[in-house]
């Protein structure tokens, strides 16, 4: 299928009327156009590069039972090769399913998508293989370096616990990335994923810590909820924020930040 998605044109394929194939073609063209409209409204980072063979294959797979996971592999390859951030790519995938069937993509499809992305864009050492965020081990190494440079005084580490709820894995993954981006923007520093699922960031001097922690606790805007309606996706709630001990022995909480 070839669709004209130029900004000045209506992105529908012209299909002759009067046949079953024509009806299917119109449904396929509508799904492709509506998915793209929602993606652009969500803030897709590269509007002119949204349409790829993988995107067309993913839409067509809804009309070919049993093909959707394989099609999402192709879509993941396209998005990975284009350097699209994982959070944007997962939002786009959810939008496809919300447009087509009224609910987000399943765990199995997201797992296939992430596996394909990592096959084409390997995760570097020191990063979590699922979220692609820096790991707790990387944060511990950074804290040790900073403590050594400061003559034994550890830096302040702020921990953020996203209140996401008991959703399936893929429905927790995308909100976690939204919270991570929100916190990174506030602190201006990389956000790490701790072993217990919390996020953590090295804070600036304590003089400015209070207002930053208050901002970090706010629920970030979810572009998918804004476009589709909050009932269609898990709601983002305010996070629990606190200072994480980063001293010898570390936190007593399982999975917390422990620095030897």
In short:
The chain is of the alpha+beta class and 260 residues long. Helix content is 47%, strand content 8%.
Keywords:
47% helix; Alpha-Beta Plaits; 9 helices; 8% strand; alpha+beta; 260 residues
CATH class of the largest domain: Alpha Beta
**Oligomeric form:** single chain
Cα-atom radius of gyration: 21 Å
Indicate the proportion of strand residues. Answer: 5-15%
Mean pLDDT: 83
User: Helix-strand pattern, N to C?
Assistant: HHHHHHEHEEHHE
Examine the coordinates and then state which fold CATH places here, giving the name of the CATH topology of the largest domain: Alpha-Beta Plaits
Number of helices: 9
Structural class: alpha+beta
* Form type: elongated
Please estimate the helix content: 40-55%
Describe the largest sheet: 4 strands, antiparallel
Number of strands: 4
Number of domains: 2
Low-confidence stretches: 1-16, 248-252
Give, in spatial order, the strands making up the sheet with the most strands: 2-3-1-4
CATH architecture of the largest domain: 2-Layer Sandwich
């Amino acid at each position: 299928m070839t669709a004209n998605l130029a900004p000045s044109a209506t992105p529908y394929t012209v299909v002759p009327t009067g046949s079953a194939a024509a009806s299917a073609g119109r449904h396929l063209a509508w799904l492709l156009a509506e998915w793209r409209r929602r993606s652009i409204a969500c803030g897709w980072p590269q509007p002119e590069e949204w349409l790829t063979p993988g995107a067309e294959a993913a839409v067509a797979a809804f009309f070919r039972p049993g093909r959707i996971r394989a099609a999402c592999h192709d879509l993941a390859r396209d998005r990975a090769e284009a350097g699209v951030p994982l959070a944007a790519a997962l939002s786009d995938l959810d939008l496809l399913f919300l447009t087509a069937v009224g609910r987000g993509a399943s765990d199995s499809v997201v797992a296939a998508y992430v596996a394909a992305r990592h096959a084409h864009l390997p995760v570097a050492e020191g990063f979590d293989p699922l979220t692609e965020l820096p790991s707790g081990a990387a944060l511990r190494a950074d804290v040790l370096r900073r403590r050594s440079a400061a003559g034994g005084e550890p830096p302040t580490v702020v921990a953020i616990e996203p209140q996401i709820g008991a959703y399936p894995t893929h429905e927790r993954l995308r909100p976690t990335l939204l919270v991570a981006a929100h916190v990174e923007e506030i602190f201006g520093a990389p956000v790490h994923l701790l072993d217990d699922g919390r996020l953590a960031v090295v804070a600036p001097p304590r003089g400015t810590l209070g207002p930053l922690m208050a901002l970090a606790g706010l629920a970030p805007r979810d572009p998918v909820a804004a476009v589709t309606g909050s009932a269609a996706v898990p709601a983002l709630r305010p996070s629990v924020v606190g200072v994480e001990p980063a001293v010898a022995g570390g936190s007593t909480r399982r999975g917390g930040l422990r620095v030897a």
